[in-house]
Amino acid sequence: MSVREFVVLGTASQVPTRQRNHNGYLLRWDGEGILFDPGEGTQRQMLRAGVAAHDINRICVTHFHGDHSLGLAGVIQRINLDQVPHPVTAHYPASGQKFFDRLRYATAYRETVRLREEPVERDGTLAGGPPYVLEARRLSHPVESFGYRLTEPDGRRMVPELLARHGIKGPDVGRIQREGHLGAVTLDEVSEHRAGQRFAFVMDTRLCSGVDELAEGCDMLVIESTFLDADARLATDHGHLTAGQAAGVARDAGVRHLVLTHFSQRYSDPSEFEREARAAGFEGELTIAADLVRVPVPKRPDRP
After folding, report:
1. Contact 291, 263 (CB under 8 A)
2. Which run of H or of E encompasses 271?
3. Is 124 exposed, middle or buried (0-12, 13-18, 19+ CB in 10 A)?
4. Which helix H or strand E contains 81, and what residues bound it?
């Protein structure tokens, strides 16, 4: 049975608090796990959330500020200590190669796992094909930063009424799915278009074209909302978004489920972020992220 869920490991911005660890997020996508922005303490948060090193197939770092990357050293060493049986691929801004190298080899350990380094130099596709296409887009932050987007390839949904009309049942259903036809009956005659799911991860950034491109049509958008709207000037100066700005992006992009995270320590009431997101006109599902919560990726609606 496929599982698609977003596991929140940490939600603080620059400074962790008593309630919020530094950043860290795992996306479970069927049989794969993608770890985003492992900040300090991620290895311990994984333990608390029931996430194992074996669950990680990719690591995606948006940028090399400490709250998004200092946990890399521990996570990489844990992957090797546990002798994860599959290769792990790491994506990160190419301009931060020296920081990745320092974190990967911060202390002595025995390497047992193939860690493939695939740094990001420009906008484009990083991995293609089932079960998803992974893309990156440049963001606007004082240091080079990239956001990430997963898109499931479109497919076909079998329609029981159409199958029955053509007398197709049992093993023949799988056969027409694999081969595209069964005798004179084509796959199109017994199925309908199913749009693939879309997920985007957007961290430290000002409003920019990259944010809009990543968010467009997403079933789930995970996006930073470091500040409340009253501090919009501060957000722009430091290369961040407010809750209202993030929600406005989601509203205009047709996002179905919005997850706000990366909160400044200056705010103690999470409900303020929800209030501002709704005031911005976002009407879809909304989660104000808290450490160790699990958020299911919404299923695609039954529409073309």
Report:
1. no
2. helix 271-279
3. exposed
4. helix 72-81
User: Pseudo-torsion of CA 65, 71, 72, 75, nearest 10°?
Assistant: -170
- Contacts of residue 41, defined as CB under 8 A and 6 or more positions apart, other chains included, come to 10, 16, 21, 22, 24, 71
Start-end of H helices in 6-62: 42-49
Q: Active-site residues: which are they?
A: 67
Taking each continuous run of H as one helix and of E as one strand, the counts in the chain are 10, 18
**Tokens at 115, concatenated:** 């860690």
Alpha-carbon distance of 267 to 93, in angstroms, equals 30
CA distance 241 to 140: 10
Q: Distance between CA atoms of 212 and 2, rounded to whole angstroms?
A: 29
Q: Can you give the pLDDT at residue 301?
A: 63
Tens of pLDDT, residue by residue over 261-291, are 999 999 999 999 999 999 999 999 999 999 9
Instruction: Look at residue 1 and tell me whether its pLDDT is greater than 70.
Output: no
- Name residue, tokens 């190298």: 101
pLDDT digits 0-9 by tens, 121-165: 999 999 997 889 999 999 999 999 999 999 998 778 788 888 888
Q: What is the mean pLDDT of the chain?
A: 95
Dihedral of CA 51/56/58/59: which sign? Answer: positive
Q: Is 64 helix (H, G, I), strand (E, B) or coil?
A: coil
Q: In the prediction, which pLDDT does 303 show?
A: 44
Judge if the upstream peptide bond of residue 131 is cis by omega within 30 degrees of 0.
yes
Whole-Å CA distances, 270 to 7, 38, 149, 277, 287:
18, 22, 26, 11, 10
Question: What CA–CA distance (Å, rounded) separates 196 from 144?
Answer: 30
Sign of the dihedral through C-alpha 240, 102, 9, 139: positive
Residue 204, Cα to own-chain centre: how many angstroms? 14
Q: 24, 45 in Cβ contact below 8 A?
A: yes
Distance from C-alpha of 254 to C-alpha of 234, rounded to nearest angstrom: 27
Structure tokens at 120: 């990001």
The span from the CA of 16 to the CA of 11, in Å, is: 8
